[in-house]
Amino acid sequence: MLMKNLGISIVAVVILIALPALASVQGYNFFLTVFPYAAFAVFLGGFIYRMVKWWIIPVPFRITTTCGQQKSLPWIKQSPLENPAGFWGVAGRMALEIFLFRSLFRNTSVEISGKRPVYGSAKWLWFFGLVFHWSLLIIVLRHLRFFIEPVAPWIAGLSALDGFFEIGIPALYLSDFAVLAGLSVLFLRRVIIPRVRYISLPVDYFALLLILGIVVTGLLMRHFFSTDLLAVKSIVLGWITLSPVVPAGIGIFFYIHLFLVFTLMVWFPFSKLMHLGGVFLSPTRILANNNRRERHINPWNAPVKVHTYAEYEDEFRDKMKAVGLPVDKE
Ligand code: HEM
User: Fold this and answer.
1) I want to staple 245 with a disulfide (CB 3.0 to 4.6 A). Which of 2, 18, 238, 330 is the partner?
2) If you ran DSSP here, which 8-state letter would residue 108 be given?
3) What is the Cβ-side half-sphere exposure of residue 35, based on CA atoms within 13 angstroms?
4) Which residue owns the Cα nearest ligand 1 atom 26?
């Protein structure tokens, strides 16, 4: 199972690397002029489509998978983040979830000791998950230097901070090191732990390997096969001003890097990576628990013809009285 699922995703990524590596000059022209717009359109359209589809699903009542005390009587202490009663509680819960992956922090592990399950805390997934996502965000933010002219001071500041230790020339970014560490742990988790391996599909490995491919080609460009960064900037500004250019002499690693990024953009909206948008529409995270204070009526309730007790009694009063059953109305 592992070999098959992992094998499929490795082959897919190798093909994605081979395509730009073997492309012709016309291919590269196409690549820098048509692909960026197509990939962006699919990404944006797909993202909006998925979000709207989730958005319009009715949620008739508050789904509250909480483990804290609900707001009720004044002398019972409420747990405002576990069981928020209004907007600010939900905002706090969401902020902790998005910036610190709070629910992952509470991840538990179960081991069978003798015949008993023993529950423990497992923070490593939370830690490396956080390291991976934060460093990816920092890398993407640093890339804005290619998209903005003149480069905003905060981007230059972020890059300087990220390369603070000045290891090597050009300086190794801490976020590059961190993203590799995060990716490696997330990948090894799926390969080594039997339970996780059992539920891992080719797409799970593919997501990690695709991002790894982007990171590795980026690192190769930065540290081993330098790329003409002025040419890169002219390409990106060409896209933005809708007058794409194709400068000569851009290294092959740039094309591979870019092709993998485009693939990621096209695949993203239809993949599990949509948790990026989905978390904002997750009912168990975004709904305040006001089930006791407000009546939530299911909007798609069909009109049902009911037969009330009063109507029942009207219909059978004589028969009921005849056998001595008590009736409400004589
Ligand atoms: C998901 C999006 C992307 C990711 C995760 C990513 C990742 C990386 C990483 C990890 C590096 C190594 C150096 C560094 O951290 O700056 C890098 C370098 C680079 N990337 Fe990206 N990249 C992405 C998108 C892009 C795009 C859209 C472009 C160009 C339009 C681009 C162009 C470059 C170039 C030119 C370098 C070399 C930078 C240098 O020599 O300092 N990347 N990328």
Assistant:
1) 238
2) E
3) 23
4) 258
Distance CA 189, CA 183 (A): 10
Instruction: Give the class (CATH, top level) of 2-297.
Output: mainly alpha
| Closest residue CA from atom 28 of ligand 1 | 258
176 lines ligand 1 (CB under 6 A): yes
173 lines ligand 1 (CB under 6 A): yes
Q: What is the pLDDT along the chain (330 residues), one digit of tens a residue?
A: 778 899 999 999 999 999 988 888 788 888 889 999 999 999 999 999 999 999 998 887 787 777 789 888 999 999 988 899 989 999 999 999 999 999 899 888 888 888 898 888 889 999 999 999 999 999 999 999 999 888 899 999 999 899 888 887 788 899 999 999 999 999 999 999 998 999 999 999 999 999 999 999 999 999 998 888 899 999 999 999 999 888 887 888 999 999 999 999 999 999 999 999 999 999 889 999 988 888 877 777 888 888 999 999 999 999 999 999 999 988
Cα of 255 vs centre of ligand 1, distance in Å, is 11
Residue 77 Cα to ligand 1 middle (Å): 50
Residue 3 bridge partners (DSSP): none
- State the Cα–Cα distance between residues 132 and 86, nearest whole angstrom: 32
Question: Residue 18: what residue type?
Answer: A
Alpha-carbon distance of 204 to 224, in angstroms, equals 29
Rounded-to-integer distance, Cα 44 and Cα 33, Å: 18
Indicate the length of the chain as a whole number: 330
- Most informative mutation of 257, 258, 259, 273 for ligand 1 (most atoms within 8 A of CB): 257
Residues whose CB is less than 8 angstroms from the CB of residue 241 and which lie 6 or more positions away in sequence, other chains included:
none
Residue 251's contacts (CB-CB under 8 Å, 6 or more residues apart) are 221, 225, 226, 227, 228
Report which DSSP code applies to 71.
S
**Pairing verdict, β 116-121 and 108-113:** antiparallel
Please tell me if the CB atom of residue 207 comes closer than 6 angstroms to any atom of ligand 1.
Answer: no
Token match 């190794």: residue?
A: 172
